[in-house]
Amino acid sequence: MIDDIRAARELLSRHLPPTPMWSYPLVDRAAGTSVLVKHENTQPVGAFKVRGGLTLLAGMSAAERERGTVTWSTGNHAQSLAYAGHVFGVKCTVVMPGGTPAGKAEAVEAWGARAVRIGDSLEDAERYARQHAEETGARLISPGDTPELLAGVGTVYLEILEARPDLDAIVVPVGSGTGAAAACLVAAEVAPHCAVIAVQSSASPAAHDSWRAGEIVERPNRTAVAGLATGRGFALPQGVLRDRLADFLLVSDGQIAEARRLLATAAHTLAEGAGAAALAGVLSRPELFTGRRVAVVCTGGNADPAELATLSGP
Ligand SMILES: *Cc1c(COP(=O)(O)O)cnc(C)c1O
Predict the structure, then answer these.
(1) What DSSP character marks residue 20?
(2) What are the record keywords, sorted (predicted)?
């Protein structure tokens, strides 16, 4: 897998410059330690997932590209595949639950993809996407169990650890766990002394609870933080996280909002909730991080209207 991540980096160098990574004195002061912020919010489509989408489509055969892709998502995964479809000229269909805000469908359609809003839940959307794949021959892309996506998003951790091999810990927000799994694989190879620590919302703890239980579990999915919202663990990332992840923290949606405000005021950074969750994890557990060199991944900046409205205070 590390070879796939290195190959993805080579390939992505033609499409994406490395993202910046900076520290900020007021963030350090709040955290009581030295914190580097990796700015994946500066990617096209505003999130790290674009690394996965581009890697996946770059590796598809001409025949596969001809048939197109179909996936289910409400957010950044959808935008990533839509953007990659635009770059490689591949037809992309994204199935979203019927209640998804129009703005999210528009963001996908703006890249030339087709958005289908149908059903009551992400599970309904997944079912429809599977049916569409069977009927049309389009390739079905699971947001959580696709090795090419894992290889692509792993490149962010190569960038971080090659720039700063002295890091003690990297803190990663988790939805499906793909990003955190990639971080573990890269750290094991490039900086084995660096601990990878995952963070999820306590309102949607399926990945956390799956990791603690050592088996895939389903949990209520009540977080308002879009990138972290999942009701089940995914087998591919959980299999990687099982032995390699150093720790897994839960934070509340309120703590995540607090971290968003700190990034806005102290790091001139617009983070969506998921993009601030790693920092929320660091702020929530100073005893784990004090005196250690820590990087947090600001995974995305697509703050929704509710997140924008609470930037000025709770
Ligand atoms: C998808 C997403 C996450 C979670 O990543 P996984 O690889 O699904 O665990 C975190 N932050 C943002 C901004 C995302 O879009």
Answers:
(1) P
(2) Lyase, Pyridoxal phosphate
Q: Please give the Cα distance from 93 to 79 (Å, whole number).
A: 11
As a whole number of angstroms, the distance between CA 309 and CA 314 comes to 9
Residue 275 C-alpha to ligand 1 middle, in angstroms? 8
In sequence order, what DSSP letters do the residues of 126-159 get, joined into one string?
A: HHHHHHHHHHH-PEEE-SSS-HHHHHHHTHHHHH
Structure tokens at 269: 């950074």
Query: In the sheet that 139-141 helps form, which strands lie side by side, from edge to edge?
Result: 114-117, 92-96, 69-72, 139-141
Does residue 11 have a pLDDT over 80? yes
**Residue 45 φ/ψ region, left for φ over 0, alpha for ψ in the -120 to 50 degree band, beta for the rest:** left
How do 34-39 and 21-23 pair as beta strands? antiparallel
Ligand 1 atom closest to 300 (CA): 13
Give residue 240's pLDDT band: very low, low, confident or very high (50, 70, 90).
very high
Distance CA 244, CA 238 (A): 10
Q: pLDDT of 244-297, one tens digit each?
A: 999 999 999 999 999 999 999 999 999 999 999 999 999 999 999 999 999 999
- CA dist list (Å): 229 to 190, 216, 222, 273: 30, 16, 7, 11
Is the Cα dihedral 305, 224, 208, 80 positive or negative?
negative
- Residues having CB within 6 Å of any atom of ligand 1: 47, 49, 75-76, 173-180, 227, 272, 274-275, 299-300
Its sign, for the CA torsion 314, 227, 279, 233, is: positive
Residue at 147: amino acid letter: P
At 57-87, the pLDDT tens digits run 999 999 999 999 999 998 899 999 999 999 9
Helix (H, G, I), strand (E, B) or coil at 186: helix
How close is the Cα of 227 to the center of ligand 1, in Å?
5
**Distance in angstroms (rounded) separating the CA atoms of residues 8 and 259:** 31
